[in-house]
Amino acid sequence: MTVQTSEVGNLPAALTTFVGRRRDLAEVRRRLGTTRLLTLTGMGGMGKTRLALEVATASATDYADGVWLVDLAPVRDPSLAANAVASALAVPDLGTRPVIDQLAAFLAHRAPLIVLDNCEHLVDACAELAHVLLSASSGLRILTTSRRALGIHGEHVFAVPPLAPDDAAALLRDRTSAVRPEFQVTDGNRAQVLRLCEGLDGLPLAIELAAARLRTLTVEQAVNRLEDRFGLLTSGSRVARPHQRTLRALIDWSHELCTPAERLLWHRLSVFADDFGLDAAEDVCAGDGIGRDEVLDLLDRLVAQSIVLPSEREGLPRYRLLETIRQYGRERLAESGQAQRLLQRHHAFYLALAEHVADGWHGPGQEEALARLRAEHANLLAALDCGGDPQATLALAAALCFHWCAGGFLGEGRRVLDRALAAAPEPTPLRARALWVAAWVALLQGDHAVTGRWLDEADELGELLDDPSVRAHVQGLRGSSALLRGQPEEAVYLFKGAVAAWTTPDEGSEVVFALSQLAYAQILLKDPRGAQTARRAVAAAEAHGERWSRAHALWALSLDAWLRGDREAGTALARAGLEITRGFNDYIGAAHLLELLAWITASGGDHERAARLLGTARSLLQDIGTGISAFPHIAEPHARCEEDVVRALGPAAYEKALAEGGSHRGPNEAIAYALRAESEPTAPAPAAATSPAPSPLTPREREVAALIAEGMSNRQIASALGRSPRTVHGHVENILAKLGFGSRARIASWWTANQAPTP
């Protein structure tokens, strides 16, 4: 299967047709309409997952809040079942409350269908999870697949039966024709086809594995080989065989028909907790019998035999093993005595990946890097839990700093770092790094006490080790803490120290975030140097191809423009920041930009639109378990804006607009809504007594003119607006031609003289 995210939900799009089970499909849908918790039971290979996905797909339009698949097969620790659900639903794990409580709060006003797949090894945890979530949300429905029922009140159970003979034959024909197009079920082979399907007990997985072998065998040859094997398994008895024995025999047979190299790769691939990329397979599985250049060919051969399935995640091509196949491979790997060595190589690969992202963060490719880490989340957690060297675990936990802090996994990062720091107390450079990362995570969660404790230890260790990088990070984070505690004067002092520590002759990339934070604080204090600092941050970000901190710097520039009465420049800069932020799962950054855009919009007289924007920002903060009061530096202008809007609209209309804005889910959807809303025409404001002459410029040209008046170069404007420098150059030439000017300075003067007056 290949995963494609639907408009609302995350259901995978099947690569193969759904054959048979029409009665089962109708019955499960009927039962799901009358119960809130339905469990599909049956042994491995019975087709529970495929039936559940088909039911979910057919029911997608019944659930306004989406249909969501949660694959629990990679989850080994029962305490992490709720985390898997939160991750699948893209619920931000950013607060300090238990994840299950965050989930319950998130679902309280939503009514989705959640499919919990492969629950059998986490039955107790899934039972508790289902009980808590169903109690919190009256509209929620849960469909689970498990080899045994959850056993809680209100659960209904549907035992998935084997395929009926005709459905089994149809499945065999469909899958065989994919590898042997001329294959048909005819009068001449029908009896043998039915005999083969009966021998396979109507198990869909067994039939699919057998179909892969009909590429080279006739149906009769397959029947004879399988009957010989089953006879050995049952000591010659032809009485009814247990289904599990049938499936095991089928996998044994598939294993024996693989070449030694194919078997070896199969065993080694079982070390991955979830799907994986080709580069991971090559790095972890090559060597000792498999050349790196052989891995792709061997993977293709295992795909052809239905051992490995192609998939996709975060737009990246991936591979995966069905859980039954993976467990079989893991048993064989353990028997070989190579399991620990493969786990160490698995850890080493993901440590190298995380360090590569961390070392190159302040440069191009940030969105792509976070997408790759999201795709690898299950494997990253497995690598952190491999039980090896505590220092290696600490190194990986620290290297994932941007996965935790910019990728939306604060809660997971907090738990991982707490455990890793406790297990590795030695005063090493790795601990120093992990300490400031842990402090950053705690700070973003609003836990200032823990932030201070970790920063104090990191500061002492940085001095002991004479590590200027640690000291610079500590000083910058102390500045952020002061800013979030409503102490901008102290923040300015600390940020200046961090900027000085990071500044190099070529304006090193690490300085960008410190500069953007310093600009915030200066502008809040109405320091005229704030805009200059923010422009310096934008220039440094642009020089290094950095985007995440650039969005923060644009927030500061937008705030400065608005405070100076330049609404149009402020709007253009806020929109540019939002365009960048849409590529990140940054709830706090998006909420700040949406808040600012609401203030600017309200000051221009469009109070209804401002209320909707306040609603989008409020919803994002609620989803991470916080509110505007957690950010003293923006709480006061928020309160003023809210008062103005309520005064203009009235409480009822304000609440209605607020709810409309808050109905958009997650940063990307909220930003898309805000940008669409900003593009819509507004009702014309009453003409002022001395209105300026109508502008000959298009809205985009006016945005460019506003940024020219801000003192920005063409390249900086291109960066801010997400356009190419060539496009911006064309806009500037058009502006000069329309206005009859010969210099950018004339554009700036014209803009200052002709912008709409501020109410």
Throw out a few tags for this protein.
759 residues; mainly alpha; globular; 63% helix; two-stranded antiparallel sheet
Describe this structure in words.
This protein has 759 residues and is mainly alpha-helical. The protein contains 37 helices and 9 strands. The protein has a 5-stranded parallel beta sheet, sandwiched between helices. The longest helix is centred in the middle third of the chain and has 21 residues, at 339-359. The radius of gyration is 30 Å and the shape is globular. The protein starts with a strand and ends in a 5-residue tail after the last helix. The model is unreliable at 1-7, 232-240 and 682-693 (pLDDT under 50).
Through-space gap between termini: 57 Å
| Major sheet summary line | 5 strands, parallel
Radius of gyration: 30 Å
Strand order of the largest sheet: 4-5-6-3-7
Task: Work out the strand percent.
Answer: 5-15%
Task: Show unreliable segments.
Answer: 1-7, 232-240, 682-693
Structural class: mainly alpha
Number of helices: 37
Number of strands: 9
Q: What would the average pLDDT be, to the nearest integer?
A: 87
Task: Please outline what is shown here.
This protein has 759 residues and is mainly alpha-helical. Helix content is 63%, strand content 5%.
Which helices and strands occur, and which strands form pairs?
Layout (H helix, E strand, L loop, with lengths): L1 E2 L8 E2 L8 H11 L4 E5 L6 H11 L8 E5 L9 H8 L10 H9 L5 E5 L5 H14 L4 E6 L8 E5 L5 H15 L10 H10 L4 H10 L5 H15 L9 H15 L2 H10 L8 H8 L9 H10 L4 E5 L2 E5 L2 H14 L2 H21 L6 H10 L1 H8 L5 H10 L1 H5 L4 H14 L5 H16 L3 H18 L2 H17 L3 H15 L8 H14 L4 H16 L3 H16 L3 H15 L5 H17 L3 H17 L8 H18 L1 H11 L4 H14 L19 H11 L4 H8 L3 H15 L4 H11 L5
Parallel strand pairs: 3-6, 3-7, 4-5, 5-6
Antiparallel strand pairs: 1-2, 8-9
Helix pairs in contact: 1-2, 4-5, 6-7, 6-8, 7-9, 8-10, 9-10, 11-13, 11-14, 12-15, 15-17, 15-18, 18-20, 18-21, 20-21, 21-22, 21-23, 22-23, 23-24, 23-25, 24-25, 25-26, 25-27, 26-27, 27-28, 27-29, 28-29, 28-33, 28-34, 29-30, 29-31, 29-33, 30-31, 30-32, 30-33, 31-32, 34-36, 34-37, 35-36
